[in-house]
Every structure is written in C-alpha cells, then in structure tokens.
Amino acid sequence: MALETSVIEDKLTDKFGDKVTGFVMMKDILSFEVDAAVANDVMRFLKEDALLRFNFLTDVCGIHYPDNDLERQFAVAYHMHNWYDNVRIRFKSFLSGETPEIDTVTNLFLSANWQERETYDFYGIIFKGHPQLKRILNMDEMVSFPMRKEFPLEDGGRTDKDDRFFGRKPDNVNNN
Amino acid sequence: MSNSKDIKIVDAPPGVEGSGFFATKLDTVVGMARANSLWPLPFATSCCGIEFMATMASHYDVARFGSERMSFSPRQADMLLVMGTIAKKMAPILRQVYEQMAEPRWVIAVGACASSGGIFDTYSVLQGIDKVIPVDVYVPGCPPRPEQILDGIMTLQDLVRNESVRRRSSPEYQELMASYNIT
After folding, report:
1. Other C-beta atoms lying within 10 Å of the C-beta of residue A137
2. How many domains does chain A have?
C-alpha cells in the first residue's frame, strides 16, 4: 500500500503547524519548507514515525540565494527516501545570510557527517553539533567558500589566458 | 630468436681513440649514461596516465629509451612524469614527491592540465605544476598520444645528454630552486 503524499502533508502539519509550509509536488517529489529551528525534529519525525518511515537520507546540500532577503540567503536541502513504500521527499530550511547556522542531523543519520562537512566546505554553513566540522574536499588553506556566488569560479593565477592568444586584441605584438 | 646484430647500442661520444685508450670529456660520458637510464616516476592522476600506460606497454615500449624500470619510490627516480590534473589539495604532495627525489632530477609535465591547468580554469585546480616545482619539458595534448610522450622523453634525453655535470651546483640552479623555496 502506497504512502500518499496527502497523508505525509497532514501528519507533518498536525505535528508542526506553521513550521512546515509550502507543500508542492516538484518533479514528482513532495517538497516543502521547514523552519530551520525544527529541521532536526522534522527529520526525526519523518524517520521514526511508524507510518512515514523515511529511513534513508539521500542527500544534504547547500544553496545560496544572494538576491533573497538577508534572512533567507542560504538554504539547506534534505532529500529523504522511504524504502518500504518507495517514496521520496525533499525539504529546505532557509538560513540567515550573516550567520548561516543549523543543527546537525548526524544524531539521526551518520551518513550526514560527510555531506554536512561538504556543505560547510563549499557554503560555510555551520552545522551545530557536528562532530568534526572542517574542510573535506578543498585544501585546508582555502579561506573562501567557493560555491557562494560572490567568489569567482576562475582561478586568478591563470597565466596562459592572455587575450592576445585568442584574437581578442588587435595588436598581438605590443599587447595593446 | 633475437639476433645479436639487431641490438642497437648508443654511439660513443666524440673523443680521441687509439689502440687501448679512448679519451673524451667527463660531461659527455656522464650525460650519455644518465640520458640512457632515466628511471621514471609516473605521477598519474587522470587520462594522460592512461596514455602513459600505453607508452609503457609493449607497443610503444618506453624501455627502448632506457626507461625500463618504473620507480614508484621517488628516492630511486630520475624523471618525474606528472600526468593529469593536479588539484590544489594535491600540490603539496607533488612537491613533497619532488623534494624526495635525489639530484639530478628532471620533470616532464605531460598534457595540458599538468602544463597549464588545461580546461580546468577553476579555484580548485593548480594552474600548471610549474607553480610549485620546476619543469624541464612540457608535452602538449589533451591527452597527448604515446608518440608525443616519447617525443617529450627524447627531448629530455637531449637535455640530459648536454647537461654539464656542474649545472646542479651552479648559482643559476640554486637561484631557480630558491625561487621555488626548495632547499
């Protein structure tokens, strides 16, 4: 017997009220928004409720919205999967642009350890309570959070991208 | 069966020959010996490494150039072949490998990524290994064919053959090493 999305929505709304909002079917997956303060509780409920049984954390990742209001500039997106009924779910928590902080979910899923470290590495989102929140993929000396939109993608140290070599400058000899 | 007449031996360097003696410069003898026994250290991180595997194997056979023995320890290697994208996180490791090699040591940057960063013009990729270690020969290509890698090795052999035995203690060389902060 399949788990209906309306059942998921009703159970979450009954339990958390206006902390969970914006239910929408996006690409065949029920998506909604969760207040960052209760994200951990919502995930625990989704995992431990006898009917919902979202037993697998597929993904944790960050999103940067530089054009949003200051209080909604960062988001953490969680994807969960119920293996018993084969139902997927997706929710976002928006965070402040100045102090992007959210509680870790490593107490619920150990797999979140790697994913939260990666999200910290690329977006600078602090996961409170994470056992070892330090850079994982980028080099330790890096000071920027490269997936934030204000940081340039290209490396400034590149020396062979000289416009003269690409016909973009009229004078190939005098570099004018 | 191999015919002993087919075996090619390196020509003797120019010198003075007479019955029972042969006189030449030490430089040329040392250069000849070094050039024909370059032990490679393959530092392969991506597709150029696959091309190098073909170069090592029987069809292209880098052993023909005296590079029979792949040395996977930097201590016993003469020629560091860097093949592939070097992420900035990998840069200190590459540098450490280079520092562990004993003099004289040579470096070939194989492929666009090792030479300049290639298509990876991004914050996470080292824009050419010459940012952290000195490079003797650059092999272009993305990836280069085995012929090109062999051409790079032969070019390096020319460099090695003509290198003065005093080069490594010259002030220019010390200056080069100092510019990379390698002591």
Report:
1. 14
2. 1
